[in-house]
Specification:
Length: 86
Amino acid sequence: MNFTRKSAVLIAVGVSAITTILALSTADAPSPLVYVTKPLATLLLVLLALTTHNPIATSYRWLIVGGLLASVVGDILLMLPSDRFI
């Protein structure tokens, strides 16, 4: 099995997502772990998009990265204690 950087990032995304789901499902209030793992999964996807060789088009790559970064900002704003989102 050829273990590449892409494989490592995909495994890290999965671990981060599963950790977030478990942390959210086992507590009434979000644990501090969620504040790290929820944005981390998306940031790792950004890393994956940036390091992909031979993208379909460079402009497409940047649109995907921009959308993922906007998603990270939205996740962080939604996790704030007071409703500061919109």
